[in-house]
Design brief:
Distance between the termini: 67 Å
Keywords: Methyltransferase, Transferase
Helix content: 25-40%
Strand content: 15-25%
CATH architecture of the largest domain: 3-Layer(aba) Sandwich
Structural class: alpha+beta
Low-confidence stretches: 100-133, 138-159, 531-537
Protein name: DNA methylase
Number of domains: 4
InterPro entries: DNA_Protect_Modify, SAM-dependent_MTases_sf
Strand order of the largest sheet: 7-6-5-8-9-11-10
Radius of gyration: 33 Å
Shape: globular
GO molecular function: methyltransferase activity
Mean pLDDT: 84
Organism: human gut metagenome
Length: about 700
């Protein structure tokens, strides 16, 4: 009813009929529908007396059916590739304005005749008004194997066909963003894309599986709730259906988190993401550990250039729904669904990239609370600690990181990093994706080996001709301001600084030109010289589960981690065997320590781990001698845990084994017990 009597008018029906007459496949019909009907929102009365609200996107049509009392009867979504066969059926039967010039089936018949055709003899000769009927046995197959004409009526169907073997599930792959219009659309179109994505996510999670490629495409349409505050307002009649949908679909916790994110959950456009990668690639970055500390659904990961495909991806996202979607879109990435303040991998990353949250509030992170930085500046401070010396931080941030009159934040950053360049975006850069007009900057910083007492020009501000406070960098480099600096009236009637877009110029072209002025060379991680030779066979991005300055075994090969890289040391066969044995001992000791520190760990588990430690130690010492022996020290002394392992042996004055340490036979660590009550104010102060 909606398709034939509402959405598709007579001219469109004629064009669709022509496409079908000329044999266009359903895929092309679906593409035509997506181009012809994007972003339509209408209401119509159905033949049943009910009402249908329908919304179209480039992907399909969403239907909400209401009865006379406006009670929802159904909520449906059809992709255009599902709609196309329905329209083809109307065309074949010449119904509802769909017609064909000659009576021929839309798909050629190819029936298998099992017996001679037996023609029924009608009582009257057929006339123009009376169709001729005949019967014949034919073989009817399921689905795509069926080639019967559309006007064949099958009264009985007998198929003795075995159930097909289900295909092997494909291993999950990271999603690739190929659509530069991702995230664009009107408020209601974005809303219903979000709803579709959340419903898809919950179905996937309920079935405990990974998303299919088709489902990943739906999930990628999620853009968060920035600019959609009306959907959370029960007093907005125009958004009543959307409000009810949110309350029904989201848990109370998810609803509150979504409502709280309407002010700052803005997603980055593919145009800006591509420009940031272009700048980083221009510096010489190819592979490494990449951090996105406020990753949303992971759009930066989805646009990772092919030249950086060997990188390891790490994302952090506070919002539960966004983080869970990111896990489905990028199953090969390491996504932490928690606040940035809960993570700490110092000197681990080669590149930190992303669009940080803006706001005049602070994050409660004990290590950074004393700085008193607002959230966007906090992300810079912490990210610089997370990347290794020589690593790069490339963030989209509020212009006030650069323009604030107080230079404290910029001095802090300048002491720890060199500014490679900055790009000021026009105020409409995020309008289509995030529905907001705001001036933002892209900053490129490279971490120093050590802090310097320095205050370069970019830590200072100056004034424009209109008297606005602007960072000195942008006054000295107007080519990095992608628009016309001007004044605008605020909601309080004051004049404020803004950057208006230049009519006729495309942002992508402006960014392409500006990136050329970003100066700096990416510094590859310094690889340690280990073992008997100086040559390093190969290196890998570091595994965060391997402690810094420690050996590990990957696919049977020994690696040594130093900051963001793991390298293959040049070891002879005997030394490599010693290292592998000591790595196993070290990991066994660490598991035992973890168990003893856990107050809830059963004693049986601890005794079992002690037995495992004894077995590993006895096997190792029988082959390679004491851990404290010179040969083992030469092989493993670079490992940060070597002296912990040495403590497993109690030696006599001659350096011979006196006995094993107590760790082999009894508990040596008392688990931590949280203090829940105190008696005095001084005790309370000490506990806090």
């Amino acid at each position: 009813d909606v398709l034939a009597h509402g959405l598709i008018g007579a001219p469109d029906k004629a064009e669709l009929s022509e496409l079908m007459r000329t044999g266009k496949p359903n895929r092309e019909i679906a593409q035509w529908l997506g181009r012809a009907f994007p972003g339509i929102v209408e209401t119509m009365e159905l033949e049943t007396g009910d009402t249908a609200d329908y919304r179209t996107t480039s992907e399909g049509i969403e239907l909400e059916v209401l009865d006379a009392d406006e009670k929802r009867l159904a909520m449906l979504f059809f992709r255009w590739d599902e709609v196309a066969p329905l329209l083809r059926g109307l065309y074949a039967r010449q119904l509802d304005g769909f017609g064909q010039e000659q009576a021929e089936p839309a798909i050629a018949a190819d029936t298998t005749v099992e017996e001679p055709i037996e023609t029924a003899k009608p009582t009257e000769e057929p006339t123009a008004e009376t169709p001729a009927f005949h019967s014949e046995p034919v073989t009817v197959y399921p689905g795509e194997q069926n080639h019967l004409p559309y006007d064949v009526v099958v009264e009985r169907l007998h198929v003795n066909q075995p159930e097909p073997t289900p295909p092997e599930p494909r291993p999950p792959e990271n999603f690739r963003i190929l659509d530069d219009d991702l995230g664009k659309g009107g408020p209601k179109e974005k809303f219903w894309r979000n709803i579709k994505a959340i419903a898809t996510l919950k179905q996937i999670e309920q079935e405990n599986r990974y998303a299919t490629p088709e489902e990943q495409h739906i999930l990628s349409q999620y853009v968060g709730w920035g600019g959609l505050a009306d959907a959370f307002d029960p007093d907005k009649p125009a958004w009543a259906a959307e409000y009810a949908e949110l309350k029904e679909l989201l848990t109370p916790e998810e609803y509150e988190a979504a409502r709280a994110s309407t002010l700052n959950a803005h997603y980055t456009s593919p145009t800006v993401i591509r420009a940031i990668y272009d700048a980083v690639e221009q510096m010489g970055f190819r592979t490494g550990n990449i951090l996105e500390p406020s990753c949303g659904v992971g759009n930066f990961f989805g646009m990772l250039p092919e030249s950086m495909a060997g990188s390891r991806l790490y994302g952090v996202e506070l919002d539960s729904i966004s983080g869970r979607i990111a896990k489905q879109l990028y199953p090969k990435a390491d996504i932490t669904v928690a606040g940035f303040e809960t993570t700490d991998r110092r000197d681990f990353y080669d590149l930190a990239i992303g669009n940080v949250p803006f706001g005049q509030y602070q994050v409660n992170d004990k290590a950074y609370n004393k700085l008193g930085f607002n959230i966007h500046n906090y992300f810079f401070a912490k990210a610089l600690d997370q990347v290794r010396p020589g690593g790069v931080v490339a963030f989209v941030t509020s212009r006030y990181t650069m323009d604030a009159k107080d230079s404290t934040v910029r001095r802090y950053l300048a002491q720890r990093a060199e500014l490679l360049g900055a790009i000021r975006l026009p105020n409409n850069a995020f309008r289509a994706n995030a529905g907001t007009d705001v001036v933002s900057d892209i900053l490129f910083l490279q971490k120093r080996d050590r802090p310097l007492d320095i205050a370069p020009d970019w830590t200072q501000t100056g004034r424009t001709e209109e008297g606005f406070t602007v960072n000195q960098y942008f006054l000295d480099h107007p080519e990095m301001v992608l628009g016309s600096p001007t004044a605008e009236s605020t909601q309080y009637g004051k004049q404020d600084y803004t950057v208006a877009p230049i009519e006729g110029l495309e942002l992508a072209d402006q960014l392409h030109d500006a990136v050329k002025y970003i100066r700096g060379t990416y510094q590859e991680a310094a690889l340690p010289e280990l073992g008997e030779g100086e040559d390093i066979d190969e290196s890998l991005p570091a595994d965060p589960n391997v402690k810094n300055y420690s050996y590990t075994v990957v696919d049977g090969a020994v690696y040594f981690r130093e900051n963001s890289r793991m390298v293959r040391p040049d070891l002879n066969a005997t030394a490599e065997a010693r290292v592998k044995g000591l790595v196993g001992l070290r990991d066994c000791v660490q598991r035992l320590i973890d168990l003893e520190m856990d107050a809830a760990a059963p004693d049986a588990d601890i005794r079992e781990q002690m037995a495992e430690l004894n077995r590993r130690y006895d096997d190792f010492s029988a082959k390679y001698g004491l851990i404290n022996d010179r040969a083992n020290r030469l092989a493993f002394a670079d490992d940060s845990s070597y002296y912990l392992l040495c403590a497993l042996e109690v030696l006599d004055e001659d350096g011979q084994l006196k006995h094993k340490a107590d760790m082999f036979t009894k508990r040596t660590i008392k688990p931590h017990e949280a203090v829940t009550t105190v008696d005095t104010a001084s005790e309370a102060l000490a506990v806090s």
